[in-house]
Write a structure and sequence with these properties.
The complex is a heterodimer of chains A (about 400) and B (about 425). Chain A has about 400 residues and is α/β, with parallel strands linked by helices. Chain A contains 17 helices and 12 strands. In chain B, the strands form 3 sheets. Chain B has a 7-stranded mixed β-sheet with strand order 6-5-4-1-2-3-13, with helices on both faces. Chain B has a 3-stranded antiparallel β-sheet with strand order 7-8-9, covered by helices on one side. In chain B, a hairpin with a 3-residue loop joins strand 10 and strand 11. Strand 12 of chain A pairs antiparallel with strand 6 of chain B.
């Protein structure tokens, strides 16, 4: 029998954007009860971002919002009002975890500093996800995905010599930080069960990118005294070939790190004799400036074939050479379809949402879709009325006052 | 106090290269005891060095990914090696592997077998395409996940080819695997039984570009490479500064940020410019806008631009290169660099994992292991094996124990490559 493993864990998500809501969604997908708090009136900023069906902006139809907030319950609350702050305390008294994305200056104003939270809610786990983290000289700096990729060193290594560094597309820092925060939160839940201690976790988006990237650059710096990896299509001292080659209908990722693979690649393109040439034997050395005698026949061969033909031949030759797929191709790709990777979320009054699921299957406690993202303030009556016991007339007053 | 959160959790780690080892590196930093199963016949790929050839026991790349772990030298091509693994499994909590699907079964170490030996065991498998589906048997490297996931297709200049995101692909997969293992450990705490975790590296990368798919599923539009442009607002980009190959990254997603940016650049009149009057106009005229911003940034250092713009609340940061990262005050202030002494390499800088906690500090307890460094200790402590037994197993080639540093770089391929 399967079950929702985080069922019964109550999470208050006082956050917007991508990173913190993605953290909340990962927990919600495994069954946690996530109460998402949005500012009354405008809601999460992602409600304005889209994409929107037929490009018609509508706060309840933003694909980004719907994707990041499925499986959650929705509340509106202004925690910077006295009553709003009181209601937040009441919510936190019932919660196991608070996820927020508030940087220290505003955290103080909201009385949500680690010290005050620890005093008021000693068992509460807190996961903070901000661009630069809670404790450092840059905590008040503004951040965006592109600045996280800049500080984390990702941008610098991507792109061509003499051209601007490249940022990674589609909020890499946000998703990566959300995943990291979810891992740290599950860890904190486990530690609370095992050792009875509650802790506050501090995740910095820029640092998450740095931990993924900086080791590579440090090595690069230490070994080669190289300032940059940009403009080197083969990376730092990797084994030739390793790069994208244009073919008839797109690109292939081409690599053959083992010598036997290299021999099979040359055989596949009809040039087996090139393997015997002594001057090409040191494939790290030639990667820096590949000789035309290799590049031309390889590039020519790929140009003459389609991705599918090449992929079939590569399977026969046992080569890890792979087509570069566009997104629309992935949606119908047999491997991903067979694994049921893309999910469909029914949205009452809205188009069905189709998007990636989670990349892991747990045999006993799988993730699942329970319900679509909430409308703005959809569960105010349920939470404030039924659970916290506010009378209908006081809810009306709170709504008029802009508290909820 | 270092992390002792997962104290008492023992991980039997068959993974190699970067993705699996990064997952177990994270678990090790959380306090789990990681036993790395390897052999001289099949050493971890990173022991030979990713960037330049290294002796098996002195590879900085291996060190980066394997601090805190213990190395158990076991020969899996020997039936007695498999038997030893089967005897170790009841003493372990988690098995991590990133072989191609089917390899563990062929070795006699499939989930059914391990589960029968230890119902509490969590087995986490991270294959390129997952363990099911028509392409599950295909092997994969970091570049392959990038190409197969759509991320490679989306990354790059609008007029250029796809772009590889290098080793960070593997580490992203490793981070996802660590999340899955933690979730399974939490589940075991509730249910008392382990489970099988089937992770697809390709899908892990798809998830990190999650909402890009919505442009197609909602509006049948196919996102393409767009360099540093952001589809929904401008300015957004890397701008040239004073200095050799120096750049600053700037984003102004809101009207307030745009107005503050114009004030900081001392060009308030740009707010009135018809080309830039609202976000849609700025997106349309982004090239003209980027040229104006570049004219301002290229007379200043990246640090000066950052300071000026952050003063007025605009997101900006110098685009760090290898040298400035190593000296980054921010990362140092956050405790991102740990120094770990390696017996052969000397003091090495490794990256602390991504979280900071109110209850403990980041610390590396031990260097990465020499190959087979802990074979004796583990077989003695967990299986009560005697010195005579171990001597016999070593003689028969079943187990390997660390000897003093080896200079061998490995197999015939590597020699032929003269790398």
């Amino acid at each position: 029998m399967t079950q929702d493993i985080l069922a019964g864990i109550r999470v208050v998500e006082l956050a917007e954007g991508i990173a913190a809501p993605y953290c909340g969604r990962l927990l919600a997908d495994f069954g946690a009860e996530v109460w998402k708090i949005e500012p009354p009136g405008r809601g999460d900023t992602t409600r304005q971002h889209g994409p929107f069906p037929r490009h018609l902006p509508h706060p309840e139809r933003s694909g980004l919002f719907l994707a990041l907030n499925m499986n959650k319950r929705g509340l509106t609350l202004a925690p910077d009002t006295a009553t709003g702050r009181q209601i937040l305390t009441e919510l936190l008294q019932q919660a196991d975890v608070l996820i927020h994305n508030i940087a220290p200056p505003r955290l103080g104003a909201l009385h949500l500093t680690p010290d005050s939270l620890r005093q008021e809610h000693p068992r509460l786990l807190v996961t903070a996800i901000t661009p630069y983290g809670q404790s450092n000289p840059y905590q008040h700096y503004q951040g965006a995905d592109i600045t996280a990729c800049a500080l984390g060193g990702l941008s610098e290594g991507l792109g061509g010599a003499g051209r601007p560094p490249l940022t990674a597309p589609f909020s890499q820092a946000g998703y990566q930080a959300g995943l990291s925060a979810a891992s740290a939160t599950v860890l904190a839940l486990l530690v609370r069960e095992r050792q009875g201690i509650a802790q506050h976790i501090d995740i910095a988006e820029a640092e998450v990118i740095a931990t993924l990237q900086t080791g590579v650059y440090l090595n690069n710096f230490v070994f080669d005294q190289a300032r940059t990896m940009r403009g080197n299509p083969f990376g730092s001292r990797t084994i030739y070939p390793a790069g994208f080659y244009r073919c008839r209908d797109g690109f292939m990722w081409v690599t053959a790190p083992q010598w036997a693979q290299w021999e099979r690649l040359l055989e596949m393109i009809g040039q087996p004799e090139l393997a015997n040439e002594e001057r090409f034997h040191n494939r790290r050395a030639i990667a820096i400036n590949p000789p035309a005698a290799l590049e031309v026949p390889i590039a020519q061969w790929f140009l003459e074939h389609t991705r599918e033909d090449i992929f079939t031949l590569c399977r026969q030759h046992r080569l890890p050479i792979t087509p570069v797929y566009a997104l629309e191709e992935l949606l119908t790709h047999p491997q991903l379809v067979d694994r049921g990777f893309f999910m469909a979320v029914e949205q009452p009054g809205n188009d069905t949402l189709r998007l990636p699921g989670l990349p892991m299957q747990l045999s006993r406690t799988p993730w699942r879709v329970r319900y679509p993202a909430p409308l703005l303030g959809e569960h105010n009556a349920l939470m404030y009325g039924q659970t916290l016991g506010y009378a209908p007339e006081s809810l009306t007053a709170l709504r008029r006052a802009g508290v909820i | 106090m270092a992390h002792t959160w997962l104290q008492g959790i023992r991980v039997l780690d068959f993974s190699w290269a970067a993705a699996g080892p990064y997952a177990t590196l994270l678990l090790g930093f959380m306090g789990a005891e990681v036993l790395k199963v390897e052999s001289r016949q099949r050493p971890d790929l990173s022991r030979r060095g990713f960037y330049s050839p290294a002796p098996l026991d002195a590879s900085p790349e291996f060190h980066d990914l394997n601090v805190n772990k213990r190395s158990v030298g076991l020969n899996l091509s020997h039936p007695q090696g498999i038997e030893l693994v089967q005897r170790l499994v009841p003493h372990c909590d988690v098995v991590v592997e990133n072989f191609r699907p089917g390899v563990m079964q062929r070795l006699g170490l499939g989930y059914e077998t391990l589960q029968a030996l230890n119902p509490r065991i969590i087995m986490a498998a991270a294959a390129a395409n997952g363990s099911t589906g028509p392409e599950s048997a295909y092997p994969g490297y970091a570049g392959v996940f990038n190409a197969l996931s759509g991320l490679g297709h989306l990354t790059g200049y609008a007029d250029g080819p796809p772009t590889e995101l290098r080793i960070s692909m593997d580490l992203r997969v490793g981070m996802t695997l660590a999340f899955a293992v933690l979730t399974a450990l939490y589940a075991r705490r509730q249910t008392g039984v382990g489970q099988y975790v089937d992770l697809s590296a390709r899908e892990a990368i798809c998830c990190l570009i999650g909402h890009s798919f919505l442009h197609y599923t909602m509006n049948s539009e196919a996102p393409q490479r767009q360099g540093n442009d952001n589809a929904s607002y401008a300015p957004h980009g890397c701008y040239r500064c004073i200095g050799q190959d120096a750049w600053v990254s700037i984003a102004a997603p809101t009207e307030a940020a745009w107005q503050a940016l114009c004030q900081a650049m001392e060009h308030p009149e740009w707010q009135m410019d018809r080309r830039f009057r609202d976000v849609a106009s700025r997106v349309e005229h982004r090239q003209a806008l980027d040229a104006l911003i570049t004219a301002w940034t290229q007379q200043r250092t990246a640090d000066a631009v950052t300071e000026r713009l952050q003063q007025v609340g605009v997101a900006a940061y110098p685009t760090m290169n290898s040298a400035t990262l190593a000296a980054s005050e921010h990362l140092q202030a956050r405790g991102a660099f740990l120094s770990v002494a390696h017996p052969l390499l000397g003091p090495q800088t490794v990256l602390a994992p991504f979280w900071r906690s109110s209850r403990s500090v980041q610390q590396a307890e031990r260097s990465s292991p020499l190959l087979g460094e802990h074979t004796r200790e583990v077989l003695r402590d967990l299986l009560n094996m005697t010195e005579q037994d171990m001597a016999r197993l070593a003689r028969d080639g079943v187990i390997e124990c660390a000897e003093m540093p080896s200079a061998s770089t490995g197999d015939a391929d590597a020699r032929k490559d003269r790398t």
